[in-house]
Amino acid sequence: MKLQTQVSLKKAKKQIDYQSRLLLLGSCFVENIGAKLEYFKFRTMQNPFGILFHPKAIEKLISKVIKGEVYSVDDIFHQNERWHCFDAHSDLSDPSKENLLLNLNNALAQTKEQLSVATHVLITLGTAWVYRHKESDTIVANCHKVPQKSFYKELLSVTEIAESLRRTIDLIQAEDPKIQCVFTISPVRHLKDGFVENQRSKAHLIAAMHEVLEDSKLEAEISYFESYELVMDELRDYRFYKNDLVHPNDLAVEYIWEKFSSVWISENAKNTMASVEEIRKGLQHRPFYPESEQHRKFVESLERKMEKVRQNHPFIDFTV
């Protein structure tokens, strides 16, 4: 008896290992995968500008990084006692305009540095709905609670999304044609837009993504991971969502991570991952008798395990 449909996944050709350098950009779902990669001590940079929900915001960030542009006071604004930038998430907002500009430009520089050594760029697309600021006639990454009347709400067409994705890929490939771009569609449901509107949005993203993947003129290493399809077609149940019934819960994230690992993480890396997990669990251990001989031996054994991992991967730091 078959009680579940299965999404067919193919092993990736250019898998991730502990020599890989990863840049992760996009919606909040990319942070779920990023948290797993960080837990296992892979070398990653995750959303330096905070969560970016739509392809235009990701394209603008990559464009500014590649072109070496910087932010000035003309690019920020004051609202509700804080300074904000329409290109960044509110996590970067600050009471001081000097601090905001410093953080924005540091994030650009750090992204540039990571991209210069990156082997993989993982991008998760969350929505095709965007907000256009009326005064500046520009699409923003975040509205920062500026009154709704200051924006037009627009649904990006399949063509607009596909063109934006191609420009983003071209910019990344210009930095290094060997970089592997991995795209996913976020399974997070943007129900604030409306049920039908959310479905239209995801449909536009999926159609555009596959149009780009099938573009024979695009000479780039690009792949697609079926995170959206795994939630919609394999899990298919509200017990895999958080209480808000919008975001996948820990069990769903763990399930998708296992699927991601099965196709994108190399077998050699999995041995190190097992060691890293054992060490991390050991570091969380709280002894009943810290002065006991048994605990002393436990600590010495843990130190030997950490040293063995560091011999092969000197960059792994268990203190953070």
Automatic annotation (TrEMBL):
It comes from Maribacter luteus. InterPro entries: GSCFA, SGNH_hydro_sf. This is GSCFA domain-containing protein. Pfam families: GSCFA. One of its GO terms (molecular function) is hydrolase activity, acting on ester bonds. Residues 21-260 form the GSCFA domain.
